[in-house]
Amino acid sequence: MRSLWSTFGRVATGRAARRAAVMLSALLVFGVVQIPSLRMLWLVLVCVVATGIAWLAPALGDRLAVSQVLLLASIPLSPQAVGLTVSPWTLCAVLATVVAVTVDPFLAPRCTPDAHARYLPGFRTPGRLTSAGAFLYPTVVATVLLALSAIWPQADVVTAIATVLVLGAGAGVGLADALAKRRGTWNRRLRAAVEAYEPAFLVYYSGPREGGYQLSMWLPYLEQLGKPFAILVREEANVALAAEVSSRPVLFIRRVEAMPMVLTDSVTTVFYVNNEIKNAQGVRFLDLTHVHLGHGDSDKPPSYSPTTGMFDLIFVAGQAGIDRFAAHGVSIPAEKFRLVGRPQLAEVQRAGEAAAPSPHTVLYAPTWRGGLPDMTFGSLAFGYELVDALLRLGTRVIFRPHPYSSRDAASRVQIQRIDDLLRAHPGNHLTSEVAESLSVFECFNASSALVSDISSIASDYLISGKPFALTDTGVSANLADEFPLAACAYILRAGTDHEPVLSEMLGSDPLRPDRRRMGTYYLGDTSDRDPVDFFVAAARAALARG
């Protein structure tokens, strides 16, 4: 029974079901426009909807669904549907539009390049029109022209010819791109441009757009290596993301078979900024040195994932980054690890370097809820209680949730509740929207204490020397045994009175000496050298090894 229900679910949410739903909607709409009082209103509405779909199409990602919606828009625009006489010219234009949106989902994959680039000298990005579907934008124009034909029938010849010409242009571009892809023209041009640029290394990114911080946090320090490099992304939507955070060439590879195209002889090393599954498609090239940077040094499961062992070198901030693998039964040869500190923390002010904010300013920075049961460290579920307790103590609050929290409906509701609470209290508090416009380190510097979860935010905050509290969400039976960081943190548990713990943290702060010891353990000893120089030296050694 369960298998049958699962099969039904796949069918109901599949492309065939979506296609049937769109076609059924088209029939219903066709009936609606027979009502005289609604005809003109419908024409205007369809034009607005079609334009909106064209604007959002690159984000929608499903060419088939977009094309079908445009087909839905074009059907009621037929003059016959609005009670006008059908001329042969207009009928020809309607049929051309229907053919275009029907063919588009099958043509688009054949004329979309397997790889392209931005900011790469000597290379023009191909398929700008067809990357969203050969007929997508021409069909929008055709739909608007059909609307004009329905409203202004005297111009049927002009609009029909214009419609066919626009769709013909889309077909021409699509067929030309398909031919170029079949002959490998784009691939040869891209390969030649990469060879001419001679990158020494690549920075590899795969993941959602919200994870762009994982990439941008390392680029300023990799720039200091003084070598040409490029950013390699595996999702087309991330081309624009990478181009926003860097002026270096951005290379996009759709399929792993096309990877050798950008792995030219000059490339010796690839740096990885997270644990995404597509990293394995890069590591498979054994003649390169593959370096795992990660995107933060925390006690979460991704920081001791067994898959990390596939990299040639593993950069960790301090000894804690090595010990946590062994503590969780993950065996990785010691020679793979490099202690590199956390160069980003050079931006963080230490306690006493600036005047302490008055009144006390507490940064509440919860992590996201996590994708697996053993990663549910996020405290947003009782974040309202925590912020309310801070407000009762007279503190100013900076609220900065994890960027991934916006992906979850329940988390968005919880964030909104906390933001509303902060707006209702005087005190120049920073809501999530305001705090997210600042870097996390700017938030560190503006605070006198931190409330966070098991995440890299807490371990990074050690560098400041300021007090912090960790939340206990019940994932671990004994937080202090499993997470060494908890030994120097004030612990906050759901359903308890938070004020006494927070008062102790903001007052006498008895855990100050413990934080000093734990700071070296987690972040490395950079007392005698600049943390940026420390990292850059390790990265240069990795390049030399490659």
Word description of this protein:
The protein is built from 22 helices and 13 strands. It starts with a helix and ends with a helix. The longest helix is centred in the N-terminal third of the chain and has 28 residues, at 156-183. Helix 18 links the parallel strand 11 and strand 12. With 546 residues, it is an alpha/beta fold. Helix content is 47%, strand content 10%. The protein has helices spanning 2-12, 15-32, 39-60, 63-74, 88-111, 136-151, 156-183, 185-197, 212-216, 219-223, 237-245, 279-283, 320-327, 383-392, 409-423, 432-435, 440-446, 456-461, 479-482, 499-506, 512-523, 531-545; strands at residues 115-118, 201-205, 229-233, 250-253, 269-272, 289-292, 313-316, 337-339, 361-365, 396-399, 449-452, 468-472, 490-493. Helix 3 (39-60) packs antiparallel against helix 6 (136-151), helix 4 (63-74) packs antiparallel against helix 5 (88-111) and helix 5 (88-111) runs parallel beside helix 7 (156-183). The chain is globular and about 85 Å long. Strands 1-4-3-2-5-6-7-8 form an eight-stranded mixed sheet, with helices on both faces. Mean pLDDT is 81; it is low at 1-15, 57-61 and 128-132.
Structure summarized in a few sentences:
By secondary structure, the chain is an alpha/beta fold. Helix content is 47%, strand content 10%. Residues 1-15, 57-61 and 128-132 have low confidence and may be disordered.
Core attributes:
five-stranded parallel β-sheet, alpha/beta, disordered N terminus
Name the strands of the widest sheet in spatial order.
Answer: 1-4-3-2-5-6-7-8
Give the biggest sheet. Answer: 8 strands, mixed
Q: How many helical stretches?
A: 22
How much β-strand is present in the residues?
5-15%
- End-to-end separation in angstroms reads 55 Å
- Which spans have pLDDT < 50 for at least 5 consecutive residues? 1-15, 57-61, 128-132
Estimated helix fraction: 40-55%
Mean pLDDT: 81
Number of strands: 13
Shape: globular
Q: What is the radius of gyration computed over CA atoms, rounded to a whole number of angstroms?
A: 28 Å
Oligomer: single chain
- Helix/strand/pairing category: alpha/beta
